[in-house]
């Protein structure tokens, strides 16, 4: 994996601060996720620099390590180019090429794409101590086998919920029968005139996730409903309801 040029590293005289904070980044990806079909030779990813000055960007992938760096990156994708410059208010494409082995053909596999925004040091303060703040963004890569024939837009219809009472609250079992990852934005359990938020982020294909919610005031009154929102391939929100009898 390529590393930053020596001139950039030597310019950081005080310290180097890397912040994982997408909302502050001015270099952004045009989509919220990457879908990589298993029969694709490569996938192009578009970045946009919204700053009035150029930025250098470094790209790498990992399997599941939010603290990953270009030096310990273990994702099975080759990024070309791995380091590039984006001019002010311009876009830039880079390519992702799958370089790993065989993966399950009956469900998606998940990886992560990281891109690090490296702004220039101020010329007005050349020779003085400066701090270079580098912003790291992280998005999901869904490796999708072409053998899957079902429609990813129907993921929400293959989600079900079971609710059980536990000491001090309830336990919600979120079941995903689909071959796709289910990414949730919002999940609410409705019982009578009560509403309880259930913290669910993502459930793997053909899997489930148990969520314990401690709330002694919530009373389970059947039938109950679950209102939930799923993120689709394009970053859009799709709302569903599921009735628990």
Can you offer a commentary on this structure?
Pfam families: PapD_C (PF02753), PapD_N (PF00345). InterPro entries: Ig-like_fold, PapD-like_sf, Periplasmic_pilus_chap, Pili_assmbl_chap_C_dom_sf, Pili_assmbl_chaperone_bac, Pili_assmbl_chaperone_C, Pili_assmbl_chaperone_N. Its main location: periplasm. By secondary structure, the chain is mostly beta strands. It has one helix at 6-10; strands at residues 16-20, 27-29, 33-37, 43-49, 55-62, 77-80, 83-86, 91-98, 109-118, 132-144, 159-166, 169-176, 182-191, 194-197, 202-203, 207-213, 224-231, 237-244. The strands form four sheets. Strands 1, 3, 5, 7, 9 and 10 form a six-stranded mixed sheet that branches. Strands 13, 14, 15, 17 and 18 form a five-stranded antiparallel sheet that branches. Strands 2-4-8-6 form a four-stranded antiparallel sheet, with no helix packed on it. The N and C termini lie far apart (53 Å).
